[in-house]
Amino acid sequence: MSTSTWDTLITDALVFDGRGGAPQHLDIAIKDGRIAARGSALPRGEASRVIDGSGQWLMPGLLDIHTHLDLEVDLDPRLEEVVRHGTTTVLVGNCSLGTCFGQQVEGEQNPIVDCFTRVENIPKKVLSKCVETITWDNTGDYMDHFDKLPLGPNIGAFVPHSMLRVEVMGLKDSISREPTETELREMERLLDQAMTQGYLGLSTDGLPFHYLANAPHTDQRIPTQFASFGELKRLLRVVRRHDRVWQTTPIIENRIKGLLYFFLSSGRLFGSPLKTSALSVMQFVLAPKASNAFLGVAGLVNSALLQGRIHFQALGTNFRIWADGIVSPIFEELDSTCKLIAREYDDVAGRRALLNDPAFVEEFRRDWFHGRKGRNLATFKAKMGLPDKVVIRDPELMIFDGAPVPEWDGESMQQVFERLQRFQRGQTGEARSEKEREALAAFPNPTADDADFMLHLLREYDKSFRWYVDVGNTDKQATLGYLLHPNAMPGFNDSGAHITNMAFFDANLMSLKLAQAEGMETVARMVKRLTRDPAEFFGLDVGSLEIGAQADVTLVDPEVLKGWDTNEHRAFIHRELFDHKQMVNRSDGVVTHVLINGEPVWQQGEFTEVLGNRSLGRALRAA
Predict the structure, then answer these.
(1) For all residues of the chain together, what is the average pLDDT?
(2) 419 — phi, psi (to 5°)?
(3) Domain range spanning residue 579?
(4) Do 380 and 452 fall into the same domain?
């Protein structure tokens, strides 16, 4: 039997304790999964395991406050793609979607697949695997089932409003009529019950491009968007009574209506402040000042006059989105491309039929050039930074990354389009290979504009060409300011969603890197923003290095962090877990050690055997 005082001793690290103060060189001792001692030169011989932390930053495990890992966690509770980046706590059930009510399958209706497929861009075959793992049918059993899993990170969950409506009304009725008074009371009862079980609050969604994926509902939005202001007010009264959180996305189609909904956070208007976590602030390419307006709204709602408690979630890196052909969350915003995306994933013939339909082509061209060409109000608004559509259609900003012609990779669509035009004028030397010559010769001659260029790509290659665009935070000049803004909070990571389109698992590390460039005081503030601040806001007992706290710990090598950039380490890999490809990040060498509940789960670039073989994290219940 071991006579050691401590299980683990981490020595000589520069410790950021999450309170925002100056870091200190300390030793941290851990016993039975808890922080047992902190101090200088603690006796090495008293520990069973010693980790040399010299030259490294030590901080509480990081929180990822906006994920869609509800699905993955039951396939693989290790959640390796967040752990490797120093994250030890994740929040699920965001954007009105989740699994806490069980499968909810009724006849041919499969609401989880129906809701998640297009909103979070997860293929149906992947979602079906996730749904098959579900064994519970109520919110209590959902929270309890985590006790039976060998969890890696800790899990906190929202009650998702779309699934709450489906649970009470059924999917068809939830998108076709108002709830009855009896149904409203049942929603209130179920929500109140979940709050007593420790759920973080209620999540809703207002984005206009979140559609259902299963026939006959492919032209309908997800259930939460059919709720009236009165319904939302009643449900949020339950959340407010428990001092929990409303997670939401803005209603951007109607700015006045969106503003009215944000006023629901006001304690002055509704009796007590409602903690509200909304998406999102970043410097959008097409609307660079839009986030300043969001922060201004938050400032008004949080003022002494209105007494609200709202913040907007901030992304710590550039908002880079990949597309497989036209399949990308941003293209749900256009009516024409929305119709293409609504086709089943493998329905190549259906998409091609649309692309050859003259009426569709006319609609596509109208959407493609809306706000980009012509002397009209839409173009004027776009030039003023107030566009009707935020989807980028500028070929200079659209970069091939997985092109049908190898020479195109890394080039913008504009560069290839201009080369095509020269080729069609007889400059055949523009083709740099036989494959490129064949590709250029296949375009209709003449290809009049970039709309025709994109239409040909879609007809010829369907989803088998990839490209990306940076929607926001392109130069990161404004990013740090948003991350530290008092009316914002780091955390718009979307980990586990948009598996072929985004990879923000490491956004917390990019936040630390941006802070590092400003100095140690800013790093200390950022650590607080990534640990203690969200833990306190969401009512969770994590994010601390206090004596007795659960020992969730992350160690970072500041020298590696300084030279690392996420854009150089994003990868598109096949994951056996999904039998599908996924966008991921690699920050190897930045995070040297991760401990969850006192157990090392990641060290020196490798996962340890304990991850996935023992229950480490836990279901976090809000208090």
Answers:
(1) 94
(2) -65, -40
(3) 62-318+473-607
(4) yes
